[in-house]
């Protein structure tokens, strides 16, 4: 029957996928949306939350607790899926995320909110990993490119819609609904996955590597705290930061040593023997470094220098996100039809280097059109890289390691974003404060003493001379941040050049493709 269908060219490619597979993919995209939207919605609601609960001095921990728990649990969820079955691990992570969301919405003080956000983050660590690993199980790598546009679309929608949705919910329903909104979406995803997704069950007799989990958790937690606190809560050369660096490095060295001895390692080191997997981890780290830095400082530049409102600054990211979406769709289709992918990491990295350098040239006189063109160049580069890195990484390992491959790639991107925000932030803040001292004198230096970022209301109250000084300072700060990003992106370009184009699994004659396409149908039950 499969051979007969494969011989009929009149049947559209998309219709060959069983409807039940498409239902699962829709549920996976909803879950991916939950993972990406959360911090953006909550970030918009934070001023209201602080006004209601108090505890301004603990504000940063609302985000830090979530980020720490997510980063530390990511590799563990991947390993649990490999050992005991992807579906059970994924659904458990969704349930924990929803419990954390409900509890966060019911928090009565800042301490409770921080604790509940940590619970939410534990679940969030398994969301993106589960999505990527299940897609890796359901769809052969050769066919997976077709769905890149869908994933890039969800990402773009989350980045643009997050602040808008967060503001609307907070203004009309109250900040607690910025957490409660996760519940109906999560229930829909859980119901669809429970009813339709049927992956082979696994029962591993091996014990969980608790020592490996502990060492990795301590190491990742220390690194994230260094990048979060360094230059803000504590000076980079302070005793606390040095202690955290020492603990982090020691824990990670111990972790690597222990993984060579453990019966069932959390991150089996043999996956790094694959040159492509290691290179994709490097490129993923750099992509996270660049992407989150760009999405953080571009809106700040647009609001402070170009005079955009908070809402419009989100919409002004459309050139970058739109270019990313279109390129990701094209890259996916080309990869699916040809089985070739080498050009995309190289081209994407090169465009990212050029685009970030162009962004570093922006000053107080740069028009929105010009900055939009520069952003589009960065978006084109990201579109070539965002999903291809995961695709090539998954194609480089055996099916039994799909979970740890997905979680490791996700972890490197997460760590890259932490480093990007911290290092770009340190450069930005120092440059803004220096320029304000030069142009604004004592008044300028005092104005940015506590924070180098002023909101729109504070900026509107400044005298013209100080406002102009601040605009030059922000322009100079973004120049330093994006120039650093451009230099760092060169590492991704060098790594991309050494990628070896290995045939994608599932590639081959159409008859073989038809046989491989039958596998997803066997894993799901017709709706």
UniProtKB/TrEMBL annotation:
<feature type="transmembrane region" description="Helical">
    <location>
        <begin position="210"/>
        <end position="229"/>
    </location>
</feature>
<feature type="transmembrane region" description="Helical">
    <location>
        <begin position="341"/>
        <end position="360"/>
    </location>
</feature>
<keyword id="KW-0813">Transport</keyword>
<keyword id="KW-1133">Transmembrane helix</keyword>
<dbReference type="GO" id="GO:0005886">
    <property type="term" value="C:plasma membrane"/>
</dbReference>
<dbReference type="InterPro" id="IPR036259">
    <property type="entry name" value="MFS_trans_sf"/>
</dbReference>
<keyword id="KW-0812">Transmembrane</keyword>
<comment type="similarity">
    <text>Belongs to the major facilitator superfamily. TCR/Tet family.</text>
</comment>
<dbReference type="InterPro" id="IPR020846">
    <property type="entry name" value="MFS_dom"/>
</dbReference>
<feature type="transmembrane region" description="Helical">
    <location>
        <begin position="177"/>
        <end position="198"/>
    </location>
</feature>
<dbReference type="InterPro" id="IPR011701">
    <property type="entry name" value="MFS"/>
</dbReference>
<feature type="transmembrane region" description="Helical">
    <location>
        <begin position="480"/>
        <end position="499"/>
    </location>
</feature>
<feature type="transmembrane region" description="Helical">
    <location>
        <begin position="23"/>
        <end position="46"/>
    </location>
</feature>
<protein>
    <submittedName>
        <fullName>DHA2 family efflux MFS transporter permease subunit</fullName>
    </submittedName>
</protein>
<feature type="transmembrane region" description="Helical">
    <location>
        <begin position="58"/>
        <end position="77"/>
    </location>
</feature>
<feature type="transmembrane region" description="Helical">
    <location>
        <begin position="313"/>
        <end position="334"/>
    </location>
</feature>
<feature type="transmembrane region" description="Helical">
    <location>
        <begin position="89"/>
        <end position="108"/>
    </location>
</feature>
<dbReference type="Pfam" id="PF07690">
    <property type="entry name" value="MFS_1"/>
</dbReference>
<keyword id="KW-0472">Membrane</keyword>
<feature type="transmembrane region" description="Helical">
    <location>
        <begin position="241"/>
        <end position="258"/>
    </location>
</feature>
<feature type="domain" description="Major facilitator superfamily (MFS) profile">
    <location>
        <begin position="24"/>
        <end position="504"/>
    </location>
</feature>
<feature type="transmembrane region" description="Helical">
    <location>
        <begin position="279"/>
        <end position="301"/>
    </location>
</feature>
<feature type="transmembrane region" description="Helical">
    <location>
        <begin position="114"/>
        <end position="135"/>
    </location>
</feature>
<feature type="transmembrane region" description="Helical">
    <location>
        <begin position="372"/>
        <end position="392"/>
    </location>
</feature>
<dbReference type="InterPro" id="IPR004638">
    <property type="entry name" value="EmrB-like"/>
</dbReference>
<dbReference type="GO" id="GO:0022857">
    <property type="term" value="F:transmembrane transporter activity"/>
</dbReference>
<feature type="transmembrane region" description="Helical">
    <location>
        <begin position="147"/>
        <end position="165"/>
    </location>
</feature>
<keyword id="KW-1003">Cell membrane</keyword>
